[in-house]
Amino acid sequence: MKRTPPAPLSVWRTLNLDDFLLGVPHYPEHVDESYWLRDAQRMAAAGFNVVRLGEFAWHLIEPQEGHFDFSLFDRAIDVLACEGIKTIFCTPTATPPRWLTSTYPEVLRTDEWGRTASHGSRQHADTNSPVYRIHSRRITEALARHYAGNPNVIGWQTDNELNTTVSTSYAEATEREFRRYLRDRYETIAALNFAWGGNFWALAYDNFDQIAVPRKDNPGFPAPGHLQDYHRFLAHATAVFQHDQVEILRRANSDWFIFHNLGRLEDIDFRGQFGQDLDFLGFDVYPMLYDEMRRSGGHPATQALHLDICRAYSGNFIVPEQASGFGSQPGFSTMTPEPGEMRRMALSSVARGADGLLFFRWRPAHFGAEIYWMGIIDHDDVPRRRYQEAVQFAGDISKIKPHLLGTTVRMDVAIAGADFDNQEAYKTYPMGMPSPLEDGLLLHRYCYSRGIACGFIHPEDDLSRIKILYVPHWVIWRPEWNENVEAFVKDGGTLIVGAMTGTRDENNHIPTELAPRAGLSRLCGVRVEEFGRLAEPGADGLFGLHGTEYGLHNPAKRLPASSATRRYSFSLGNQEYDAAHLYELLRLDDDVKVIGRWTNRFASGRPMVTVRRFGNGRAVYVGTYLTEPLVEALATQLFAESNVQPLLQDLPPNVEVTMREADDRKLLFVLNCDAEATEIKTPPQGIDLITGRRVEEKLTLGPHECAVIQF
Which CATH number goes with the domain that contains 622? Predict the structure, then answer.
């Protein structure tokens, strides 16, 4: 497997490997050695070419401080290699050994209430701790030195799902590192006091040593700037922790590829050093776990959303952990994929940008906190339907990968995403309203259900390949994005700017100029003179929210319902709709056209949706937050003129359609997400790479069946 230097981060970046990574995370340390050869033989028979090893095995590799024993994994790697299976090794820093946490207790995390983490779980060590970083570098150095010349170790995963169990820490070491970060960022305490608004609530500091990490409700709200800088620091510290390991691995063998596997997307700036250090990113995919946690459209829709969000950070990716069956830890369990679903979910990952996939896991554990998290092989060492589906998927990949590698996922409609500061700025001051991601997912879900190519993109990426860009109330808008966005509109693109966009600067201050600031007012031809809160759709009051792992809506708190009866409506396209969450009153430039107006109360007659022509394109401003009816109305008004069409006409319910393409080819993935057969009446003419048959007049898909049509 050959590696080339990675291209710069972009949603359009393809993987820098010449083969599709296909296999499983494997834990030879969990079973008797007599199983190993049979395991390797069955992996090879399934069509796998790689395994992932070692992410939780620090205690075996360094059983005593400074004493290393690689023998178990040396033997396991050799057995796998004899059957043609290569190894991705992991730095095992997610689970330090007991001797380390006992000898150096200062490496343990401290939570918000001052409790010190105990040994016996994972991610209990604080990656901000300088002492822990010393030990992390030492184990990484030992592993890199030992395996530098082993041709069967082809790449590395750093740690395991950084910040997934917990991302915050309140230990003394964290506080010291936070102060050091702030000194480097601001240099003077006066500069910090300005950024944090020190003259509000007497929040000013005399020196950096007085600063503590912020704690919520202690007793009131911390300054938004303080909170945002704490999360900037956590992201910085996570990147520095990983950078230590990457530097060591790169020095040892420049041919190795290096990636990280992400679970939750907490306190990591993927577009910063964290992502720039890696060859590519990996995202762990458990669709039925998302469905249980988020309940937003079923697990096919939530898997699609998750992968489209992730692809915006880095472009094509791998899936180091793809769900294979029932999953659980002591506090939860997932639904179980029905026959055919495991394969279909894996092909959905490929359709949305995966150029490598490892089914989690080879066999389930017989002990520990995941004993009912199933793998490809059952507890009794018998391969059943999950193994057979893995074999089938491997066959699918062998047929499509010559055409797949080098392609990217098509997007006609794109939602602004992948910006760490905007994600965190919302969290510092949510006001009980939807996050940018929650707002944007309404548009994503509309497109997904209709087979329209939709995803997420950062404004600094190449926008020439999309037709519509929606900015979902990004409160921070950087002037350096204007040139790219203006060129997109001038060349014929449609920009849609959501309410509250460009209302703050990077310090979370409100500027003196009216929003949307930083050039968007000139492009859109609007200025916001007033805004106010509205009730949620169907609500009997106003709701507070605290975002979930992706910033999605969780109406856990109710605010006073005094505004609940104040319904504000608007007209758009000869229809009248109820607005939700927020209204804005707009002042317009002379060349701006109004296509939607407020229709009741004091706002009646004022503009709500506007269009300004700019070059060959147009800039649309929407003075409220999205609702499902508003998304449909905007699509009716704007999509046709932008030449946005479904990838398939007459798309049946529960069918997912996605396109991967390059200059010389197009691959249309058509995935039946239902347990019933379905018929596609108007498929494109081409070859179904999976069956080898030509598709012409119609396409019939059985339960959870898939087609990949090349044309």
Answer: 3.40.50.880
